[in-house]
Amino acid sequence: MISLSSPLHVGIYENNHLIEKHETKEQTSEALPLLFESILKKYNCERLFFARGPGSFMAIKITYIFLRTLSIALSIPLFACDGFTFNNQRPIRAMRNLYFTKDKDEIQTILLDESVEQIFNLPEYLDTSLFSENTQPLYILPAV
User: Fold this and answer.
1) pLDDT one-digit tens code per residue, 13-44
2) Is beta strand 78-81 parallel, antiparallel or unpaired with respect to 48-51?
3) Is 144 inside a domain boundary?
């Protein structure tokens, strides 16, 4: 799942290959329960993977709480990685013209004169080695 900006992306993978995807521009808090209600009726989820940030603070928080709760309730493992995995390492909007960037393993904020289009994609093949059990959200908040 990628919920760092709109649209929200949810992918279903079988043997690490994308077999179904969902996108919605609805608010994360509204979309997640409805999406997962239909997904869980159709599929038996064995693992959950998500982008833990940086990005929209509220979306990250809601996604983490929702998936962590689902992980506990269904007794399935939860894994996460940073959002740069899903946007070709491009800057991720923090607010206005302030963006998160990643250099090696360090995430920082920089000001950019021109806006960067926020495009995130679910991979056709999910490389699970990019994920870890560290699912703590990346709440990197810039100074206001």
Assistant:
1) 999 999 999 999 999 999 999 999 999 999 99
2) parallel
3) no
